[in-house]
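hey
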């Protein structure tokens, strides 16, 4: 309660926010439990995907094949009650295969007219599977949609459903047949979520649960309207001055021209823009709500620093030649605010 007294938002009723937050927390816990029945050993991944969706953003899932990235997205669509569609990205995929295209119709009197056939992007949850296997031209077809929530075909604007989220999966770039995502598109993803191998206990459970005579099926916990209500609640949660300053310090110190440490600044080729600060501001609120807290802390900033920043910055050639990674740099930056 003290967090509300110290950092309450103008025009907000703390008791009302608390009541709404309590109801939202119960729904979120039920959703996590439903997801956990099918996805084993990926608690951090599930949390970060929920942070992404509750923040109203898009997520990039990065990991080698076979780690249930596709299954996670399909499960989320069912559990959250969203209209979910999947596009398998391949080198020959065209932008019209995602956005849709115009076709010519002819009526009984011979009059011809164009009709727009909507593509799979007109869904509430779009899964872009193996997004880095498509050409940059096709990847860029998502840019306008992810930022402006509409597409333009032949000069005509078509609004996308609400809510609209893209969850893209990506194979590591060292694998054959992939194309690096453009920096402008990477910046559209709220979080980059690294999917790692499950631990031994989770993999043991997986062996028994997935090789029997019956498979578990996901249960619907909420609907699109419920998700939008929680997204609006996330934006109303108060944020303390110390958290805001931690966000600004972290993001600004990741830019080569802003870091007072000349040695650290010299290893950064380019850093995150203001969109990273906005992403952190939303993500820390969502993480706090998932944990059942009414306001975020600096610990939330530290926990989400890597998924927010790692795809929004790059190191110099000399730093990479010395074996330094973006995670190493972010770890140093986190230590200064944690």
């Amino acid at each position: 309660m003290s967090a509300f007294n110290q950092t309450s938002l103008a025009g907000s009723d703390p008791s009302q926010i608390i009541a709404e937050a309590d109801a939202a927390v119960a729904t979120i816990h039920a959703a996590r439990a439903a997801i956990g029945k099918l996805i084993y050993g990926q608690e951090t991944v599930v949390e970060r995907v929920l942070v992404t969706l509750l923040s109203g953003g898009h997520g990039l899932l990065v990991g080698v094949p076979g780690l249930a990235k596709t299954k996670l997205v399909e499960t989320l669509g069912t559990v959250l009650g969203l209209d979910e569609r999947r596009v398998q990205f391949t080198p020959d995929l065209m932008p019209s295969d995602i956005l849709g295209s115009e076709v010519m119709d002819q009526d009984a009197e011979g009059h011809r007219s164009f009709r727009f056939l909507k593509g799979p992007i007109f869904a509430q949850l779009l899964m872009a599977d193996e997004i880095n296997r498509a050409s940059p031209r096709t990847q860029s077809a998502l840019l306008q949609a992810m930022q402006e929530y509409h597409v333009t075909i032949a000069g005509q604007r078509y609004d996308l459903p609400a809510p609209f989220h893209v969850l893209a999966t990506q194979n590591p770039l060292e694998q054959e047949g992939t194309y690096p995502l453009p920096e402008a598109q990477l910046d559209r993803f709220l979080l980059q979520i690294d999917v790692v191998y499950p631990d031994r206990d989770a993999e043991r459970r997986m062996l028994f649960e997935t090789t029997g005579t019956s498979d578990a099926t996901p249960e619907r916990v909420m609907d699109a309207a419920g998700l939008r209500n929680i997204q609006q609640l996330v934006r109303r949660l108060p944020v303390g001055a110390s958290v805001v300053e931690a966000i600004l310090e972290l993001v600004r110190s990741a830019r080569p021209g802003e870091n007072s440490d000349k040695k650290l600044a010299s290893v950064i080729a380019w850093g995150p823009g203001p969109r990273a600060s906005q992403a952190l501001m939303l993500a820390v609120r969502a993480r706090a709500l998932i944990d059942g807290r009414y306001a975020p802390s600096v610990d939330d900033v530290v926990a989400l620093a890597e998924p927010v920043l790692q795809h929004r910055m790059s190191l110099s050639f000399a730093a990479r030649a010395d074996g330094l990674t973006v995670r190493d740099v972010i770890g140093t930056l986190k230590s200064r605010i944690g």
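Residues 126 and 149 are 12 Å apart (CA to CA). The chain has a mean pLDDT of 87.
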